[in-house]
Design goal:
Layout (H helix, E strand, L loop, with lengths): L3 H13 L4 H7 L19 H11 L3 H9 L23 E11 L3 E9 L5 H14 L3 E12 L2 E3 L3 H12 L2 H9 L6 E10 L2 E9 L6 H18 L6 E3 L12 H5 L3 E10 L1 H8 L3 H18 L3 E2 L3 H12 L6 H4 L2 E7 L5 E10 L11 H10 L7 H25 L2 H9 L5
Parallel strand pairs: 1-3, 9-10
Antiparallel strand pairs: 1-2, 3-6, 3-8, 4-6, 4-7, 5-6, 8-11, 10-11
Length: 423
């Protein structure tokens, strides 16, 4: 067995290839010869500008035909959602469900559009939806919601930092008033603070109505920070509107233990007969696998313990116009299975922070709005319901994947569905 020294040597040889060290070093140096022109970008979306880019690019005409010419959409509808636009990406959309959801915000049977290129994904979630619906649906509720932005302030000394904190904590009502001037949908609901030497991190928590809200809270926080710099009794040397403390677009222990977005839980009791009929296993076998996988998650250092939240989230986010990068922070949480006293399966998922909305961002684009309308969850007043449906979908996915793994069907399903019609 090769040791670390041998592995390092092998990797070095693979990186260098036929080059010696001097030649490899030269290849990594800046190259200023024949620099291409990089034009100033544009946020305007029009067929004229898109065509201009294709003409200048020298790219193959058949690529333009696929990405632009064959698209019939009114391209101006995408203004404000893209820069340097050249065309459109098409993804297949599949349907899972109907999924019965018995939530405080979502009550009914929902068809769920999932956009993905991963074979077996829609089939797996559809199977889980079938199980949950056959059991009478799952119970869901939003436990808490907020979206935070965490500006940072730099002072000369810790003493100045502490004076600033005392003042800032007394200014909540004023900060709340300032935030309200930037949005009619968002509301500042709390402030927290962290002091590190002469640095102060404030954590502003907002509700954002039916929007996912990242831009909303950024603009509100900027306005508050501008007022702080103008009126604070101890003026910071400098500030940053986001300090990387908020957990925006990354998995973080802080967001996991509190909330960023909407904290949602879903649960169901699945009769043993349904587990046998539709999942081809038993509650006991599923719990045994879940127990081992939970330890596996702990050993690997994951934030939370679950099977594949990111699969369902990414597919639903793409279909409904969510910020797909937020999967990084939203796909944390806990799945738990137990055998009830009656021998049935108790299954639950809890997600500490789903970033999701039904207005703003990409939710108003033609395809994405159509997917939300297909669910009956487009527009104002539907964000909490969408988050509950999302949690129910992820519970369906956990039931299906864990059943496949404990029954030994996981590889077979991928072999069957991923290779059909392909060489």
């Amino acid at each position: 067995m090769a040791g670390k020294r041998d592995l390092t040597r092998l990797h070095a040889e693979r990186m260098l290839g036929p080059d010696d060290l001097a030649s490899a070093a030269q290849r990594l140096m800046p190259d200023l010869d024949g620099l291409p022109e990089v034009s100033q970008g544009t946020a305007k979306v029009s067929r004229e500008r898109m065509s201009r880019w294709w003409e200048k690019s020298g790219a193959k005409p058949d690529l333009r035909k696929i990405l632009l010419d064959s698209v019939t959409d009114d391209v101006t509808a995408y203004q404000g959602n893209i820069e340097n636009a050249i065309g459109f990406l098409r993804l297949p959309i599949g349907i899972a469900g109907p999924l019965r959801v018995n939530g405080l915000a979502a009550k009914g049977d929902f068809l769920i559009p999932l956009a993905t290129t991963e074979a077996a994904l829609v089939a797996s979630y559809h199977r889980g939806c079938r199980v949950l619906t056959s059991a009478g649906g799952c119970s869901t509720l939003v436990l808490y919601e907020n979206v935070n932005r965490a500006p940072a302030f730099v002072f000369k000394t810790t003493s100045e930092a502490c004076q600033f904190v005392v003042w800032a904590m007394s200014m909540f009502e004023e900060f709340e008033r300032i935030a309200a001037t930037t949005t009619s949908h968002g509301k500042l609901v709390d402030i927290g603070c962290t002091v590190e030497g002469n640095h102060v991190y404030l954590n502003f928590e907002f509700t954002t109505g039916d929007a996912s809200g990242q831009n909303m809270v950024t603009l509100a926080t900027q306005a508050i920070c501008d007022q702080i710099m103008a009126t604070a009794p101890v003026t910071p040397l400098r500030f940053y509107v986001e300090s990387n403390l908020s957990g925006d677009k990354k998995a973080s222990a802080r967001a996991y233990h509190s909330t960023r977005g909407k904290k949602v839980t879903a649960e169901a009791i699945i009769p043993a007969e349904l587990v046998a009929k539709l999942l081809h296993t038993t509650p006991k076998a599923m719990v045994e696998y879940w127990q081992m996988s939970a330890i596996g998650g702990v050993l690997s250092g994951t934030i939370g313990v679950h099977g594949h939240f990111a699969n369902g989230l990414a597919a639903l986010y793409l279909a409904t116009g969510q910020d797909a990068a937020c999967v990084a922070e939203s796909a944390t949480g806990v799945t738990r299975f137990e055998v009830t006293e009656d021998g049935n399966l108790y299954a639950t998922v809890t997600l500490p922070g789903i970033m999701i909305g039904t207005v703003g961002g990409g939710t108003g684009l033609p395809s994405q709005k159509a997917c939300l309308e297909l669910m009956g969850l487009a527009g104002a007043g539907k964000a909490r319901a969408l988050s509950e449906v999302c949690a129910a979908l992820l519970l369906a996915g956990e039931l299906s994947i864990i059943a496949a793994l404990c029954a030994g069907h996981f590889s077979r399903a991928h072999r069957k569905l991923a290779r059909t019609g392909k060489s």
